[in-house]
Design a protein that fits this description.
Blueprint: H1 2-6, H2 10-45
Keywords: Membrane, Transmembrane, Transmembrane helix
Transmembrane segments: 20-39
């Protein structure tokens, strides 16, 4: 089982890592954008 993971197609592994990191960046960006909008709404209400 371990050897199969070691022999994993490098391109396939790289693509998986890239897609995961892109998903993380997008979710973090959306979270920050939502926080920014919430702060902006509270600021405008005052």
């Amino acid at each position: 089982m371990i050897q199969k993971k070691m022999l994993c197609d490098e391109n396939k592994c790289d693509n998986n890592k890239k897609s995961i990191s892109v998903l993380i960046y997008i979710s973090v960006g959306v979270f920050i954008w939502n926080m920014y909008l919430l702060a902006l709404e509270e600021f405008l209400e005052e």
